[in-house]
Amino acid sequence: MAPRANWKGFLRLSLVTCPVALYPATSEAEKISFNQINRATGHRIKYLKVDAETGEEVAPEDIAKGYQVDTDSFVEISKDELDAIALESTRTIEIDRFVPKAEIDDLYYLRPYYIVPDGKVGHDAYAVIRETIRELGRVALARVVLTNREHVIALQPRDNGLMGMLLRYPYEVRSAAEYFDGIQDVKVTKDMLDLARHIVEQKSGPFEPDSFEDHYEAALTELINKKRNGQPIAAKARPKGDNVIDLMEALRRSLGSDAQVAKPAAADKASAKPAKGRKRKTAAGQKEMLLPISGSGAKGSSAKGSSANADSSKADEPKAAGAKPKKTARGAAGGKARKAS
Prior knowledge:
Elements: E1 7-13, E2 16-24, E3 65-70, E4 73-77, H1 79-84, E5 92-99, E6 109-117, H2 123-136, E7 139-146, E8 149-158, E9 161-167, H3 177-180, H4 190-203, H5 215-228, H6 247-271, H7 300-315, H8 329-340
Parallel strand pairs: 1-5
Antiparallel strand pairs: 1-2, 2-6, 3-4, 5-7, 6-9, 7-8, 8-9
Helix pairs in contact: 4-6
């Protein structure tokens, strides 16, 4: 099912205009989610909108928006009044300014969107705007209204399209001084920096988001599978952090342990084979789900199949590194003969 556009309107640069649609560039739909249920019956919980004072249920047509000005006092705002103050950017992304990307503080980035032409017309104007931004090497700042709020959006080319990043307003960004002023001014010695630098070098590598693992999502999947199979749930001990007394010794230990971990990790990566075909994005371990979390997925037969696949994958695990193949009797005899000669 194709994603649905969050917004449709026009992208405008001076007199150049084209129809566009905004699509969210990220999604959390793949993550496991829960519903609230009645423990006694197993039925889902349903919420009702009730009057806070009388406790009586309120019909949807009787619910309005209100701004609280005092403890028990609200100013009611109607939909017509909100529509009356609607801004032009409700239906238009108007480019106001071009700025260097390096000047935008990361704290202002909020949420990314893909901006694509809407329909068969306007592709020429879209290409003109995209290539103009690309040639300037800058970011285009514009305004757009989403969920009844006007946002500043930063536009930049991405492949053959445009990406728009919603930006926060200054009043939404907290000052770092409120949190960092209490940090002690500690002098770090050269020896400590050298050890830390070696640790960083061992952990350095290219940015590979495909290697990210959502350990909590995998743990949820394992928990749900065990519950559905009636397996016992054992509480796992929480790791305890050690108090650092000698920082130099801690750095030395880290350097040694990281070096040992890096070798088998590199070997595993080299032996890994690329997966064939297109797979649904899941967290590590979620591919072993016995049954889908939601929807009318596979029945019990598929659950058994998944469990069998998990067992067979364990049987196919490679032997530990360093294990040597056994010599055949013929090969061993030949070796002794050569030594004797």
